[in-house]
Structures are given as C-alpha cells and as structure tokens.
Design goal:
Alpha-lytic protease prodomain-like, about 0% strand, mainly alpha, elongated, about 220 residues, single chain
Length: about 220
C-alpha cells in the first residue's frame, strides 16, 4: 500500500520532531552526568554528606535520562521496519514507564535518607554545599528549558526526562533554602524536612507518569 503525500509529510514531521528530542535529551544527559560527577567529587573533597547525597541522587536521574536518550536512538534505528510490528510510540511509552519507576525509587530513597538524617543529623559545610547546589540549580534550569516542549504531554519519554530535571531542580531549590536557614538561623532540621517534602512531590509526579504511560502500554486510550 502506497503512502500518500500527506502521510509522508506527517511521517517526516514526526521523524524530525523525535530527532530534535533525541538531540535535546543527549545534551541534557551529558550535562547531568558532568554535574553529577562534580557534585560527588566536591562532596568527597569537602567531606559533605549533603553534596554526596545530592550527587548520587542526580546519578539516578542521569541514568534515567540516558535511558530516554537510548530509547530515541533505538526508535530511530528501527522505525522504518515492519518486523514484529515495531511501534515507536510503544517503545517511548515503555521508556517513560521505566524512567518513572526509577523516579519513584529515588523518591523512596530520598524519604528514607531524610528521615534518617532528621534522627541522626550530620555536620554540613554550608558555604560549599550552597555553592554546588546553586550550580546544580542552574544546570537543571537550563536542562528544563531545553526539554520543555508543547508536545511533551503526548510523548511520555520526553516528559519523563523533563520530570527528572524538574525533580532535580526541586531538590536543588529546597536544598538551598534549607542550607541558608541552617547557616543563618541554625534551623538544621529543615534540610531533612525539605527532603521529605520533595520525596512526596516527586512520588506524585512519578505516579501520574506511571499511570499515563502504563495505560498506553496496555493500549488503553482515553476518549
């Protein structure tokens, strides 16, 4: 069956759109990985558990965003084959679903670590921690701008990457506020409390993404 001109143009448009998503996700994955390495390195050098925790937290997001990038690569490579009835949308939904699961695991770990730190507070080198947290926030802001797109609601894969960046940005903002409060007002417990609040918000984001991408995977479409 021959494809008419309008269908061909539509396919070209969709292909170009996914190509743009792939490039954006690639850049963000690399940027996130570099930032993660910086945070972990500075965490060890300054003996700051806060920076180490944030760095390892970002590592899970770097992995998830890398998974998103990989999904676009595989999708592009096999999008023109009919073997096994390959469907790009299903692959992207699967990647989004997997990424959301990772996001949920991160939220649970954050909650556990925050509660543990609330019960067993650690000494924080506030100035160094704030400096790196600000860098992380800037990186997340740039990444969010890159990944934000009007079609992200219909692409669970790019939405997953976008949510991972937002989650990182949220933790950076709350970390900065908590660290400033600890440094100037001696409210040390706020650092742990902010972590618990962030984990709850991230859980909500992850749950929504799991529900939406999961529905697409079982071919349930809301009318």
């Amino acid at each position: 069956m021959k494809m008419n001109i309008s269908d061909e143009k539509l396919n070209v448009h969709v292909h170009n759109q996914y190509g743009a998503y792939e490039n954006k996700t690639k850049f963000v994955a690399i940027l996130t990985t570099v930032t993660m390495a910086v945070e972990i390195t500075f965490g060890y050098l300054t003996n700051s558990m806060a920076l180490l925790a944030d760095g390892w937290h970002m590592s899970s997001h770097a992995f998830a965003i890398g998974l998103t990038w990989l999904a676009y690569i595989v999708s592009r490579k096999y999008s023109n084959t009919d073997k096994h009835s390959f469907k790009k949308e299903k692959l992207l939904a699967l990647s989004g679903y997997s990424s959301a699961i990772i996001l949920q695991v991160v939220a649970v770990i954050m909650a556990i670590e925050s509660i543990n730190r609330l019960l067993n507070p650690l000494k924080i080198k506030f100035e160094q921690a704030i400096f790196v947290a600000v860098i992380g926030l800037v990186v997340n802001g740039v990444s969010a701008v890159i990944l934000h797109h009007k079609h992200e609601q219909s692409d669970h894969n790019i939405k997953a990457a976008y949510l991972h960046v937002l989650a990182d940005g949220l933790t950076s903002i709350t970390a900065i506020i908590a660290l400033l409060a600890g440094m100037y007002y001696k409210i040390y417990s706020l650092d742990s409390i902010s972590g618990i609040i962030c984990s709850v918000i991230i859980t909500k984001w992850a749950f929504d993404l799991i529900k939406n991408s999961g529905s697409e995977l079982i071919e349930f479409n809301k009318k």
